[in-house]
Amino acid sequence: MSFLSERVKGLKPSATLAIDAKAKALKEQGEDILNLSAGEPDFDTPEHIKKACIKALEEGFTKYVATQGILSLRKAICQRIKEDYGLDYSPEEVIVASGAKQAIFNLLLALVNLGDEVLILSPYWVSYPPMVEIAGGIPKIVSSSFEKRFEPDLTDVEASISPSTKGMILNSPSNPTGLIYRREFYLGLSEIIKKHNLWVISDDIYDRLRFDGKGPENILTFAKELKDRVFLVNGVSKTYAMTGWRIGWAVGPKEVIKACSNLQGQSTSHATSFAQKGAEAALTGPQEPVKVMVEAFANRAKVLCQALREIPGLRFHEPQGAFYVFVDFSAYYGRKTEAEKEIQSSLDMADYLLDQAKVALVPGVAFGDDAFLRISFATSEEVLKLAVDRINIALKKLK
Ligand SMILES: *Cc1c(COP(=O)(O)O)cnc(C)c1O
Fold first, then answer.
1. What does the pLDDT profile of the chain (399 residues) look like in tens digits?
2. Which atom belonging to ligand 1 lies closest to the Cα atom of 102?
3. CA of 100 to the centre of ligand 1 (A)
4. Where are the domains of the chain?
5. pTM for the full model?
6. 6-44+288-396 has which fold?
7. What is the spatial distance between Cα 330 and Cα 24, in angstroms, rounded to a whole number?
8. Residues with beta carbon inside 6 Å of ligand 1?
């Protein structure tokens, strides 16, 4: 007998978290695992941010606060968006949530009706399709190709639209590709969005982690007139190495933000009070630590790509941001392991590399592309080089 609701019956655990858990379990058993599956910076949270949080705790800032988030943090978020994008928002147009993840979850619950279709551009962040489904919607995946740097053809985007299509989720720099959409793509996309009256969730979580020295960009950079239909999502997790703090936010038209607040008020109430003080310090304090991390990520991207180029058969684009390279391993599919097992998929390859090379990568099937595996460079250059050596040796053993 099962008491499970229809809503959760088909729900799978997050694939990225699953690999991470497997790698961590093997490590605990004493195995020398190099974990390149992490979806978080390896840096520690900057000291001044921790201090602000400790101060808040010591001052007794430990009670319930406003559902939508403390006003000073919402003001800091508006200020940051003004500085980064030149866009004006008021604190009523901001909701602070327990991570960007909850911010997206809130938005989808507030925007999606039963049977509504939501466009998701592949490869995509693992959580988008299940989140849309939980909200009662139907994820419509728009495919892309390696050759076109994972920017879907605009004709394919438009062909995916039906009368039930209500919105679209964007993410650039992208997890898993590390690539940034070009201006031309955004311009074309914005025409389609207007024509079909769609809303957009712009997941900007990596917007400041880019290696070209340019400022952050999203669809509003190129199409300001979409401001009344675009919801900007961001947070402190990736930019400030604060994944465990669980602070993110959504910014956009008041009516929907208010609905998110009503939803959140009936579920988690609000993000942790003193963590919000830390996030405020992150946004308003010195931004030097971000620069240091971005430089480190940029260097690691170079080191990793240089090493990967030594392995025959692999294809990838050098990342422009975030901390991932999306690598095509499919040239090795169809080959056999020493145990005569044929590698047929990204899951097989991830399992093989974890067993043989003791390197943990995330299978691309989790992001909608089975030819690829995602390599995270949120780890030291030494570990990256060692990991690529081990991958190279393991691939050579395939027959
Ligand atoms: C990490 C990540 C998130 C979630 O961030 P949190 O603020 O920690 O919830 C959202 N979107 C993408 C693409 C991510 O990689």
1. 889 998 888 887 776 677 778 888 898 999 999 999 988 899 999 999 999 999 999 999 999 999 999 999 999 999 999 999 999 999 999 999 999 999 999 999 999 999 999 999 999 999 999 999 999 999 999 999 999 999 999 999 999 999 999 999 999 999 999 999 999 999 999 999 999 999 999 999 999 999 999 999 999 999 999 999 999 999 999 999 999 999 999 999 999 999 999 999 999 999 999 999 999 999 999 999 999 999 999 999 999 999 999 999 999 999 999 999 999 999 999 999 999 999 999 999 999 999 999 999 999 999 999 999 999 999 999 999 999 999 999 999 999
2. 9
3. 6
4. 6-44+288-396, 50-284
5. 0.96
6. Aspartate Aminotransferase, domain 1 (3.90.1150)
7. 26
8. 39, 99-101, 125, 171, 175, 203, 205, 235, 237-238, 243, 248
Determine the residue type at 44. Answer: D
Structure confidence by residue, pLDDT tens digits, 43-89 = 999 999 999 999 999 999 999 999 999 999 999 999 999 999 999 99
Pocket test for ligand 1, best of 95, 96, 125 (most atoms within 8 A of CB): 125
CATH assignment of 50-284, among 3.40.50.720, 3.10.310.40, 3.30.110.10, 3.40.640.10: 3.40.640.10
Is residue 193 within 8 A of residue 225, CB to CB? The reply is no
| Ligand 1 atom at minimum distance from 243 CA | 8
Q: Which atom of ligand 1 is nearest to the CA of 100?
A: 7
Helices marked H in the chain — which ranges?
6-9, 15-28, 47-58, 71-85, 100-111, 128-134, 154-159, 183-195, 219-222, 254-265, 273-284, 288-308, 346-352, 381-396
Cα(358) to ligand 1 centroid in Å equals: 26
| Choice from 40, 205, 249 to test ligand 1 binding pocket (greatest atom count within 8 A of CB) | 205
Q: How far apart are CA 96 and CA 73, in angstroms?
A: 8
Q: Which of 101, 40, 49 is nearest to 73 (CA)?
A: 49
| Angle (CA) 287 289 294, round 5° | 100
CA of 42 to the centre of ligand 1 (A): 15
Q: Is 75 exposed, middle or buried (0-12, 13-18, 19+ CB in 10 A)?
A: middle
Shared fold status for 6-44+288-396 and 50-284? no
